[in-house]
Amino acid sequence: IMTSRACTGALIHHVAENNLFLVKRLIDRVDMRNPDPSTRRYTSLAWAAVLGHEETFEFLLYAGHDDEHDR
Question: Coil, strand or helix: which one is 2?
Fold first, then answer.
C-alpha cells in the first residue's frame, strides 16, 4: 500500500512522464492539487502545463483540479 506522500510523488512523476493511463489511476488515491516537495512546489496541473502535456493537462482540469471545493 502506498502512502499519501508516495502517491503524490508517483502522480507528479507520471504527469511529468505524460503517462495519462497511470495519472487516471492515481487521482482517486491522492489530492491531485498536492504540490510536489521540490523547491518549485508545482501541482500536477502546473507540471502538465509547464511540460506541454496538453492531454494530461486537460484531463486534470476536467477531473476537477482547479475546483474550489474541499481545499
Answer: coil
Place of cell 502522480: 11
Question: Residue 33 corresponds to which cell in the numbers above?
Answer: 492539487
pTM of the model: 0.78
Instruction: Please report the DSSP string for 6-29 in residue order.
Output: HHHHHHHHHHHTT-HHHHHHHTTT
Residues 50 and 65: their CA atoms lie apart, in Å, by: 16
Spatial separation of the C-alpha atoms in residues 66 and 6, rounded to whole Å: 22
Q: Taking a C-beta distance cutoff of 8 angstroms, is the pair 64, 28 a contact? A: no
**pLDDT tens column, 45-71:** 999 999 999 999 999 989 887 666 544
**Cα distance between residue 46 and residue 9, in whole Å:** 14
